[in-house]
Design goal:
By secondary structure, the protein is an alpha+beta fold. The protein is built from six helices and seven strands, in the order H-H-H-E-H-H-H-E-E-E-E-E-E. Helix 1 runs antiparallel to helix 2.
Length: about 200
């Protein structure tokens, strides 16, 4: 067992997570991925591990994710009133794909999976979202409409609010809930998965 592996195992074995410990976990995961050259097996983990340590992210993977939003606005002809509905299941907004990749990563490297159990995973995501709210995804050349994507600090556990800033000065505000109680757009419920408001 390597020193990296031991440090990550110890961090993952705790049931209390803070912004500092979540950042540490992603940094250790990133080191293991780079050391073993397995970033391509876990692209979403790699994306977050990169994002948590940068005040803004404008690299290739950020441009790929922003391109998704740009395409949505292009399909809607970027109407000033009727913004396109963003698919809330987009990988880096819907954290279930991250959970799947973390489970595979922990299996591959024989690491504890306590963090994936509730209420640990909700606490882990709450802290992750608050870390990312300080770090925006910045568009570079090649995007027609989008300038920036950013998460907003959480008000309630499980809530995920985000802003897509367009290069014409307008912005799209979206909210979802990673506990899947409901999905909202602009503060209005657009889909209630459990049939409750």
């Amino acid at each position: 067992m390597t020193n990296l592996h031991s440090k990550l195992k110890e961090a993952l074995s705790k049931r209390q997570y803070t912004e500092m410990s979540v950042t540490y976990i992603f940094v250790q995961i990133r080191k293991i991925l780079e050391k073993n050259m397995t970033e391509s097996l876990f692209p979403l983990i790699s994306f977050y591990a990169n994002w948590v340590v940068h005040p803004k992210l404008d690299r290739k993977e950020a441009q790929r994710e922003l391109g998704y939003f740009d395409k949505k606005f292009e399909e809607a002809n970027c109407l000033l009133i009727d913004f396109p509905i963003i698919d809330e299941t987009k990988d880096f907004i819907d954290f279930s794909k991250l959970k799947e990749q973390l489970r595979s990563f922990f299996d591959k490297y024989n690491l504890p999976k306590i963090i994936l159990d509730e209420p640990c995973y909700t606490l882990f995501l709450d802290n992750l979202i608050n870390i990312l709210s300080d770090c925006s995804l910045e568009a570079t050349e090649g995007h027609t409409f989008i300038e920036r994507f950013s998460f907003e600090p959480q008000r309630l556990s499980g809530d995920v609010s985000f802003i897509v800033l367009l290069n014409n000065g307008l912005s799209y505000h979206g909210t979802t809930n990673f506990n899947y109680l409901n999905h909202k757009k602009g503060g209005e419920v657009i889909e209630n998965i459990n049939g409750r408001v």
